[in-house]
Amino acid sequence: MKFVNSLGLVLGVIGGLLAYLALGPAHGVFFIWATFIATATGVALGGTKETFKNLVVCGILGVVLAWAASLIVLNGFAAQLTLPVWGGIVVGATTALLALAANLPFFPAIPATVVGYASTFAYLLSTPGKLDNKVLLGFGIDNPLFVMSISFLVAAAFGIVSLNLAGKLSKPAAA
After folding, report:
1. Nearest to 119 by CA among 87, 88, 148, 90
2. Which terminus of the chain, N or C, has less C-beta within 10 A?
3. What is the DSSP string of 133-171?
4. Exposed, middle or buried by CB within 10 Å (0-12, 13-18, 19+), for 23?
5. Is residue 175 scored above 80 in pLDDT?
6. Are the beta carbons of 94 and 121 closer than 8 angstroms?
7. Rounded mean pLDDT of the chain?
8. Strand, coil or helix: what is 28?
9. Are 47 and 154 in contact (CB under 8 A)?
10. Average of pLDDT values for 44-48?
């Protein structure tokens, strides 16, 4: 079987399983949209176990930076400078930090860090009530430190399993 066909088959089965989990028993524990985006990022970065390790580490760095930026925006100088000005300063500074972190050997994958950062802000800004000190400082699963990090861990597993299974299915049978 061609690799693209085996990958399509594997992604369909595993993607369906993830959708079942996200809509059912694991609802709210991870986000399927963040998992698919992060998985695609891991594949685009090379699709190896090393790139998926970097996806998790750098993705979670992005989550932490977005979480910290959210707390700084909520508790900083928005009243004095206006929210757009203060938010722009904080996001600019934390975005620079996420790129500069690539100077450290632990955080080599800037695209994965950006995806973690952007996914976290997508969650916080598009889900009513989540950009809130109580959520950000709480120990509930709705805290982005937990739910987004879990999404990245699921993405790495999804990517590794998908590529491995597709590779096995696409190898010609031994004669």
Report:
1. 148
2. C
3. HHHHHS-STTSHHHHHHHHHHHHHHHHHHHHHHHHHHHS
4. exposed
5. no
6. no
7. 93
8. coil
9. no
10. 88
Domain boundaries, the chain: 36-158
At residue 27, what are phi and psi to the nearest 5 degrees?
-55, 125
In this structure, which amino acid lies at residue 95? T
Task: Give exposure, 64-98, as e/b (b: 16+ Cβ within 10 Å).
Answer: bbbbebbebbbeeebeeeeeeebbeebbeebbeeb
Q: What is the mean pLDDT of residues 44-50?
A: 89
Which residue from 174, 161, 171 is spatially nearest to 47, judged by alpha carbons? 161
User: Which is nearest to 45 in space by CA: 96, 93, 114?
Assistant: 114
Angle, helices 144-170/32-44, rounded to nearest 10 degrees: 50
Cβ density class 136-154: b for 16+ within 10 Å, e for less: beeeeebbbbbbbbbbbbb
Tens digits of per-residue pLDDT, 95-116? 999 999 999 999 999 999 999 9
Query: Which residues, listed in sequence order, are joined to residue 27 by a DSSP beta bridge?
Result: 30
The percentage of residues in the chain with a pLDDT greater than 70, rounded to a whole number, is 98
Tokens 């977005």 -> residue: 66
Tokens for 168, please give them: 């096995």
